């Protein structure tokens, strides 16, 4: 396994505006080798499920067992929460950097990793953003050609990534860059749908002829973004499948099929192959929505993007000059498990309070108090989830107020400047006014 600090070849290439083109092969006995190159977007998925990039017929291998991706001059391996684990040279790992020559063991299967000798340098795309989605790191820039290709295509696709990586913003950026840009971009937040979810999605007809058009019909001609699609009830997934495959739906209480022209984009932070295995997600719907997949990397793998994004959030909040040293120092030692969303809130919190620490980061005396009076909530002896919700509500209210003040009450401009989807900013504003 490689030393994570050994990047001399990569650093030289980056100074020249290029990236090292590392190539690896994975070989399973009896199967043709699979070749990976560092200029290809996203990780290679290994598991027993149909649709895996490397499918293994091993009953002890999980449906999506692990992923591998060349990053710089090494091969990055990450276990996908498998049941029986992933071992490299006999040592079980959750995360590893490989140089070639290692043996990966999953279940009863051994996979040999070889480094191919024909390395060279290649130029990354020059963009430091895709629409309103910012990112100049190699991990982001190698995604942009795929994003451009998908923009021009009518097929459904899936954006995968941890919470807070910016999946909705990327989906909206791709909608705005495509031929449906002038048509609606409608968001279905599958995790917060009400109990009458079928009516919300597909609409309803009453006996007196009144029609309520659901979100799918409202997206006719445009894009429907299914945020955290794995949260949809299973019976609804089957009805959605017909809309995705045939472009037709039936309103609740209706008797005729309604035809719609909708481009479907879904997102998830879950392992959908495992959701299928557990009977919680339709395999047919997964295949229909994942005709193409974009793996949005976490912030910890986006070299240089923390500073880029923090400067953007800082100036967007009405601040001038460089980032404060205390904030820069904090960012340098933080791994951002909440990704871009957490970074945005850290910057906003510093603007509001002058405190660069992540929310709920303790001071040296282990108290959690700041200028917003978080300590009073701790005194209420609430459960973690309830306290977290109260803290978040307080922060969101202060942030919305600040952005509206900066933009003199103009909600549309404040929403655009915040980097949040317009719908979500309006939701935060309404929530803070209650």
Main sheet properties: 6 strands, antiparallel
Overall average pLDDT: 82
Number of strands: 24
Oligomer: single chain
Helix coverage percent: 25-40%
Query: What's the helix count?
Result: 16
Backbone CA Rg: 23 Å
Structural class: alpha+beta
* Proportion of strand residues: 15-25%
**Low-pLDDT segments:** 1-17, 360-373
**Major sheet strand order:** 3-2-12-11-8-9
CA-CA gap between termini: 54 Å
What is the 3D shape? globular
Would you write up a description of this structure?
The longest helix has 23 residues, at 384-406. Helices cover 34% and strands 21% of the residues. A hairpin with a 5-residue loop joins strand 2 (23-28) and strand 3 (34-37). Helix 12 (339-353) crosses helix 14. By secondary structure, the chain is α+β, with helices and mostly antiparallel strands.
Short description:
The protein is 34% helix and 21% strand. It is an alpha+beta fold and 434 residues long.
Topology of helices and strands:
Elements lengths: L7 H8 L2 E4 L1 E6 L5 E4 L6 E4 L6 E2 L10 E6 L2 E6 L6 E3 L2 E3 L1 E4 L4 E4 L2 E7 L4 E4 L5 E2 L2 E2 L3 H4 L2 H8 L5 E4 L6 H10 L8 E5 L7 H6 L1 E2 L5 E2 L2 H4 L4 E5 L6 H13 L1 E2 L8 E2 L3 E6 L3 H6 L5 H7 L3 E3 L9 H12 L8 H8 L6 H15 L20 H5 L5 H23 L4 H8 L3 H11 L2
Parallel strand pairs: 4-5, 16-23, 16-24, 17-20, 20-23
Antiparallel strand pairs: 1-13, 2-3, 2-12, 4-6, 6-7, 7-10, 8-9, 8-11, 11-12, 14-15, 18-19, 21-22
Helix pairs in contact: 7-9, 10-12, 12-14, 14-15, 14-16, 15-16
């Amino acid at each position: 396994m490689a030393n994570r600090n050994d990047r001399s070849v990569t650093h030289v290439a980056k100074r020249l505006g290029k990236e090292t083109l590392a190539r690896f092969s994975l070989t399973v006995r009896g199967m043709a080798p699979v070749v990976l190159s560092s200029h290809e977007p996203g990780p290679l998925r290994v598991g027993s499920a149909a649709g895996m990039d490397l499918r293994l017929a091993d009953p002890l291998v999980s449906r999506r067992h692990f992923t591998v991706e060349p990053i710089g001059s090494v091969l990055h391996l990450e276990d996908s929460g498998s049941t029986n684990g992933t071992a490299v040279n006999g040592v079980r790992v959750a995360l590893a950097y490989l140089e070639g020559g290692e043996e990966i063991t999953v279940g009863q299967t051994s996979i040999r990793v070889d480094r191919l000798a024909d390395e060279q340098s290649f130029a990354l795309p020059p963009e430091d953003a895709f629409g309103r989605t910012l990112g100049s790191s190699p991990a982001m820039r190698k995604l942009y050609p795929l994003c451009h290709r998908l923009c021009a295509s009518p097929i459904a696709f899936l954006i995968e990534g941890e919470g807070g990586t910016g999946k909705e913003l990327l989906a909206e950026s791709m909608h705005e860059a495509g031929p449906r840009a002038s048509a609606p971009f409608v968001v279905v937040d599958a995790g917060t749908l009400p109990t009458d979810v079928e009516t919300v999605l597909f609409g309803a007809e009453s006996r007196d002829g009144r029609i309520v058009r659901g979100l799918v019909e409202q997206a006719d001609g445009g894009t429907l973004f299914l945020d955290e699609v794995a949260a949809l009830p299973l019976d609804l997934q089957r009805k959605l499948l017909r809309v995705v495959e045939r472009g037709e739906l039936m309103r609740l209480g209706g008797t005729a099929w309604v035809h719609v022209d909708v481009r479907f984009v879904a997102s998830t932070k879950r392992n959908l192959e495992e959701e299928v295995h557990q009977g919680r997600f339709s395999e047919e719907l997964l295949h229909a929505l994942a005709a193409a997949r974009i793996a949005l990397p976490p912030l910890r793998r986006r070299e240089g993007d923390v500073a880029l994004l923090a400067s953007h959030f800082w100036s967007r909040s009405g601040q001038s000059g460089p980032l404060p040293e205390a904030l820069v120092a904090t960012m340098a030692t933080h791994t951002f498990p909440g990704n871009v969303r957490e970074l945005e809130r850290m910057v906003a919190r510093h603007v509001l309070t002058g405190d660069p620490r992540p929310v709920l980061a303790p001071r040296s005396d282990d108290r959690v108090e700041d200028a917003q009076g978080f300590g009073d909530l701790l005194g209420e002896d609430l459960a973690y989830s309830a306290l977290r919700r109260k803290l978040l509500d307080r922060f969101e209210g202060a942030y919305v107020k600040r952005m509206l003040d900066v933009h003199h009450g103009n909600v549309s401009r404040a929403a655009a400047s915040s980097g949040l989807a317009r719908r979500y900013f309006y939701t935060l504003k309404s929530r803070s006014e209650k």
